[in-house]
Amino acid sequence: xxxxxxxxxxxxxxxxxxxxxxxxxxxxxxxxxxxxxxxxxxxxxxxxxxxxxxxxxxxxxxxxxxxxxxxxxxxxxxxxxxxxxxxxxxxxxxxxxxxxxxxxxxxxxxxxxxxxxxxxxxxxxxxxxxxxxxxxxxxxx
Length: 141
Fold this sequence. Notes:
By secondary structure, the protein is of the alpha+beta class. 26% of the residues lie in helices and 25% in strands. It has a single domain, classed as Nuclear Transport Factor 2, Chain: A. A hairpin with a 5-residue loop joins β4 and β5.
């Protein structure tokens, strides 16, 4: 039943397969691409559906700190709950990159509804650090 619930769809980004037809994805890959599409779309980016997407793009100029990480986690959970009904989000953890002060990694643990199969997706998110901000975040784990 879960496989019928997932379905299949066009690959994203749009591409062709070896036969020249539009490439299709199914099962877990289709859901993973749908999650990336939701997180990669800013609110207002789609003229016919301006509420589609995720609010993390409003945080591009925010500092790479725990407050921003918490806001990102909230926005990711909220958007996935609204736009991807085929999954249950189990956890969202935002990690700060030690080597690059402008990079945060969004670690999403989810399960496809109707299965007991936890999955993980890491989505990189980049902020623009203020001038003079150190390259490394002091005290970050």
